[in-house]
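so my prof wants the structure for this chain in the tokens format not the other one, which i didnt know existed until like an hour ago. anyway here's the sequence
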Amino acid sequence: MKILIMGGTTFVSKFTAQYFSNKNDEVYVLNRNSRNQVRGARLINCDRTQLGDKLKGEHFDAVLDITAYTEEHIKALLNSGVSFDDYIFISSSAVYPETNPRPFSEEQTCGYNSVWGEYGINKLKAEQYLHSKFASAYILRPPYFYGLYENLYREAFVFDCAMKDRAFYLPQNGDMKLQFFNVSDLCKFIEILLEKHPENRIFNVGNKDIVTVKEWAELCYRAVGKDVNFVNIDKNVPQRDYFCFYDYEYVLDVSKQNNLIPETLPLEQGLKEEFEWYKNNPDSIYNRKPYIDYIDKHLSKTN
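here's what i got, hopefully its the right format
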């Protein structure tokens, strides 16, 4: 296939570009060339909001839009003169209001989520504009991504704690629920969509198994080969000062996805793979949050 990937230099879009390039597809990446490019991909060097004639007259079998955050991002691409057969947009589960009943399903009303704010609303507007112009586009709504090329300080934070033989500071009793989706499973699901073209156009994606924060931290330590000692932190301490997720849990109904891809990578295996990659690529984290400094200054002396 001839594939256009919007992005290609960071985490999800980088992994996706490498995945399809490894399968000998003809992969084009559109980005500002601010970081190293994926081996085998062909660069279209520009800002996605200033495309000019870069894509005019070009045709792709599929557009994989991983970097659109607003309606304007979608609009600029659709008005660029490009043509394509399939369009897959990676949206977000932030389009579901936190007041919706769990698990969130694709049939539920979307709208403002007070935890994610304008990010969720902008993703929703991008979805709506895309479907108004290209009704056959596929929209995917993931929970938390994880895996190779991760650039956010989440699993890496726990890995660092484990490698330094530190106790792990746990929000309250650690029973907040989390749902994940490995970037390799995302790419496998994209392949299925492009091959089978199911009638449904909107899919929640993610692991069907849900874990608690405590279980997730235990698996991260286990990936490093360490046992974990927990320190429980009172709810009055701002969670984001010492921990890498908001105080917000949600669960997605992924039954429609599971009808097409029944098995996803077990979280324990995925975390082991991510750690093996991270320990050789510690500079992959672009914004390393000072959680450990905060713990040492404000929490460790009182616990």
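also thought this was worth mentioning. DSSP finds nine helices and 13 strands in the chain.
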